[in-house]
Amino acid sequence: MSSVYVFAVLIISVGALVYMVSKLKFHAVLALYLATLLLALLVGTPIEKIPGMINTGFGNTCKSVALVIFLGSLLGIILNKTGAIVKMTDCLVKWFGKKKVLWAIGTSCCILGIPVFPDTVSLLVIPLCTNLAKKTGISMMAFASVIQISITTSSLVPPTPGPVAAAAALGLPLGVAIPWGIIVAIPGLIATVIYASTLKDRQIPLNEAFLENAEDGGNSTADVSMSFAKAITPVLLPVVLIVLQTVSKVVVPKSYFAKLMTFIGDPLSALFIGCFAAVFMQARGWMHNLDIRDKWINAAVIDCAGPVFITALGGSLAAFIKSAGAAKILAESIVAAHVPGIFVPMLIGFMIRTATGSNTLGVATAAALCEPMLDILGVSKLAAFLAMCSGAVAFSHANSSGFWLTCSLSKMNFNQGFRAIGGSTAVSGIACSVFTLILYFAGII
Q1: How many CB atoms sit inside 10 A of residue 97's CB?
Q2: Who is most buried in 202, 211, 346, 445, counting CB within 10 A?
Q3: What is the pLDDT of residues 197-208, one digit of tens each?
């Protein structure tokens, strides 16, 4: 196959994926499956081998990410149901004070974006922000803008599906992906809060439905007296354990501690410990509560099903790219054009995210396309991971469900939403991408 044909095939396949999701409104799972079939046929895969290769790519990816995504989803549900999210946000607002309330909300949403899906963060935090907007006089546009920082950590830091998929596809340990993802997310947080501050005087009507009931007082498991330490420990504990596993392998590789951390610091074990800690520390009467022991887990299974299938089908797409040698041809063409390899995963993540409205799909697709190219592009796994995840932060607009969710809850029209949500995600994505490029060209990653 010539490089021109390879370019054409990838453009057609990715273009078909984008068109099906953004224009025809196909579910991303169906769109990915059809795009994979199209790519398989265009690269000349024998038709009798296509089903087997789809299953193999799907299964190989699924076994690496499915349980991690499920446990991450379950942790987010527990934090929601127990009131820990409200507690974290409330404490941070008190500590930062009214004058720096945007920093408090931004920091809270940055933390919440690690185990909780961005749309869920918006659902949980917007009622609180509506009341804060009334008390402080800061525009709801500014609060809606700063809430979007959850998309940044959701795109960069496992265990949310996008970065989990990318790390699995690239063979990057989560113990490496998590701390570096957090580091690169920090410039995004700073840039988002600064941008949101420019909107604080642009007043809009508040959502009256939230002004009388900012917190979920009907939740029988919520503990209003919970301390901040109890609220945040289940979020930080898995991160610490996973990082310790990686550190122990380097510092004391043959010790008993390293062997122990290989087990409890594995992402599955660490996230399970985090979930158990959340239930044990936060949920009242959990031993006798059927909702906790059954319904919460059912909800997590349902929530994670879509992301798991999207991620696994990304593995199927990658299988055909590898088998046809398309990635090698494409990478060699990019190198011959003297384009720095770091821009490839970044631009792919950005284009898929912008076109489809899904940061998960942007990261997962970029990982599937770029993993076979890395050796030729001369880009490390870590650099590629941070590049594609940073690119997929930007930007939310009319084709994103989260865009309309935040607009409707915040009582913003399209123009106001585009400025608040689109602007903040664009600024955050640029900040994270620039910082990634600085780290890359400085030889750090």
Answers
A1: 10
A2: 346
A3: 999 999 898 887
